[in-house]
Design goal:
Layout lengths: L1 E9 L4 E11 L6 E2 L2 E6 L6 E10 L7 E6 L7 E3 L10 E3 L4 E6 L11 E9 L4 E5 L3 E3 L19 E6 L5 E8 L6 E5 L5 E9 L8 E8 L3 E23 L8 E2 L7 E10 L8 E2 L3 E8 L6 E10 L1
Parallel strand pairs: 3-12
Antiparallel strand pairs: 1-2, 4-9, 5-6, 5-8, 5-10, 7-9, 10-11, 10-12, 13-14, 14-15, 16-23, 17-22, 18-19, 18-20, 18-21, 18-22, 18-23
Length: about 300
């Protein structure tokens, strides 16, 4: 059942109408749609290596378990602060440190258009701690009666065109199929781009060569180019390696003989990528490393990724 709301506020002497155009439906507007993203702060009083577990239930009482995911037994799909994977030993949380944890589930394991009730907790190697049970999860179906935007006006037959810094364009078309109320969204997915970034800061000293960590990309696509900047004219070279989940952490270079680099300069870019292996599959790990003898004290490398 849908309830139609009349919201009022009190000014100290009388009630006044605020809005009467909102609607409410039980179990709609879930906490997470298609992926789970939450913040965690280590309040234990000491540094801890942590894993995380999410349990999905089909009822609000959380008695009928549907699925359990646990980063200690399978780290696929788990990301810290949008860039770091969770090592086998757990991710190090310093005391009072807060991080954002994201989990990308295999959506085919869940029923579309259904709300699931979550229990989330952390594992410190001995005990499950900090249980959270206020969240819900939903897999979008495209025709749900829980559409939180149902009361907004509908625009028919419109396009949005984005022009990127390199001159390429991304266009989103939306139109109605018929008079039944079903809509169609035509997205030129071949032009949808994302940015994968790594920042290395030597805190005033030259950057130390070596691996700077892994980033998980949950979609397949193509690398279009790279942009590299520093805070001053300097030199630095980045190696980029990739692998899939099953071969992690055995990565292989994709940059051939033309890696991202600065040579006595503050910025550089390359959109040709001669010799590179530019295609990648979904859930590919990217490893970034600094090579040679850098003089830069700070560097930011951005990869431009095109979704397939």
């Amino acid at each position: 059942m849908v309830y139609y709301l009349h919201i009022e506020y009190h000014n100290g002497s009388s009630w006044n109408s605020y809005t009467n155009t909102e609607a409410f439906k039980k179990n709609c507007n879930p906490s997470f749609t298609d992926y789970v993203d939450f913040d965690y702060i280590n309040n234990s009083g000491s540094n801890k290596y942590l894993h995380f577990r999410i349990r999905f239930y089909e009822n609000e009482e959380r008695t009928s378990l549907v699925d359990t995911v646990f980063s200690d037994t399978n780290s696929l799909g788990w990301v810290i602060d949008d860039q770091y994977t969770i090592p086998e030993s757990g991710y190090l949380f310093n005391n009072l440190e807060e991080k954002s944890i994201t989990f990308y589930p295999i959506l085919s394991n869940f029923e579309q258009g259904r709300t699931y009730y979550l229990m989330i907790d952390a594992w410190d190697g001995s005990n499950f701690i900090s249980e959270m049970s206020d969240f819900t999860f939903y897999v979008a179906s495209g025709n749900s009666n829980c559409d939180q935007y149902a009361t907004l006006p509908v625009l028919k037959n419109f396009s949005i065109l984005f022009e990127l810094e390199d001159g390429s364009r991304v266009k989103l078309n939306s139109s109605f199929n018929d008079n039944s109320g079903n809509t169609e969204c035509e997205c030129e997915s071949a032009n949808m781009t994302e940015i994968l970034s790594v920042i290395v800061d030597g805190n005033g000293s030259p950057i130390v060569a070596g691996s700077k960590g892994f980033s998980l990309v949950p979609f397949s696509g193509t690398i279009l180019g790279w942009y590299l900047v520093s805070d001053a004219s300097s030199s630095v070279t980045f190696g980029i390696k990739t692998c899939d989940y099953f071969n992690y952490p055995s990565t292989a270079s994709i940059v051939a003989s033309s890696p991202p680099q600065l040579s006595a300069s503050q910025k550089n870019k390359d959109t040709t990528l001669s010799g590179w292996s530019t295609s990648f599959d979904e859930y590919t790990y990217f490893e970034f490393e600094v090579t040679g003898s850098p003089t830069a004290t700070y560097a930011r490398l951005d990869l431009i990724l095109q979704r397939s």
